[in-house]
Amino acid sequence: MSAERFDCHYCKDSLLGKKYIMKEDTQYCTKCYENLFANCCEGCSSPIGCNSKDLSYKDRHWHEQCFKCAKCSRSLVEKAFATKDDLLMCTECYANDYSSKCSTCKKTIMPGSRKMEYKGHSWHETCFLCHRCQQPIGTKSFIPKDTGYFCVACFEKCSTCKKTIMPGGVTYQEKPWHRECFLCISCRKQLSGQRFTSRENYPYCLECFSNLYAKKCVGCTKPITSLAGAKYISFEERQWHSECFTCMQCSVSLVGRGFLTQRDNILCTDCGREK
Questions:
Q1: Residue 167 DSSP SS3
Q2: Are 129 and 104 in contact (CB under 8 A)?
Q3: Residues 271, 258: Cα–Cα separation, whole Å
Q4: Share above pLDDT 70 across residues of the chain, in percent, rounded to a whole number
Q5: What is the DSSP letter of 168?
Q6: How confident is the model at residue 69 (pLDDT cuts 50, 70, 90)?
Q7: Rounded distance, CA 77 to CA 95, Å?
Q8: Which SMART domains does the record match to this protein (predicted)?
Q9: What is the pTM of this model?
Q10: Tens digits of per-residue pLDDT, 159-172?
Q11: Can you list the domains of the chain with their CATH numbers?
Q12: CA-CA distances (angstroms) from residue 193 to 93, 126, 180?
């Protein structure tokens, strides 16, 4: 009785004492297996034989020695890599050629790292900061304002009471206030809807600013301020409201007229000659 045959399923050559490969419960000699089933290497276009390691990525296959960066030829085996136009590249080469630069730190944003993108600009996730509190915004909501970006908490919190501001607040020097919280630093009068000015970054109503910083009229001793559009006369380091610049004796207006001085007094030319 002859021994049972053990042949290659495809070429029928005997496999007794030879290396063979099983596929779906069917045996093949190595030559037939490679011809029938071996993947073609993307790098060298040769079949990936039974004695070679087959590395695959997205239904594409490489010999282990062919799995390398298309630019610098360094091996990518067990290393991070990126793809561009079906080419494999190490992260360094990809970053140098294609990665965007962080708008804050100006360094390359490496492939695979978390990043933020907005209107053509890119940031490392840890570099995208709130303009006010300087904390990373990350993937949370934010509000763009002028050249900065604000987290919702900072943008909507009143600079005085720190409570949330509903629509209709006041913004001054890039800081938000409730209308009722935006007050003159001196008299605490509400400034919303009123004309105001500032000194050393503090807001003042016009009245307080005039009382504190404006020159005083020689005639009535009240402040002279150009903020309210008042016209005034200046002479020898003294100032008068236009309506106060009158003859000391007859009270005629001296605006646009010649005048004389008598000690600290001003007189029209007629009263001056009488003296």
A1: coil
A2: yes
A3: 12
A4: 93
A5: S
A6: very high
A7: 19
A8: LIM
A9: 0.33
A10: 888 887 766 678 88
A11: 99-153 (2.10.110.10), 156-213 (2.10.110.10), 231-274 (2.10.110.10)
A12: 58, 40, 11
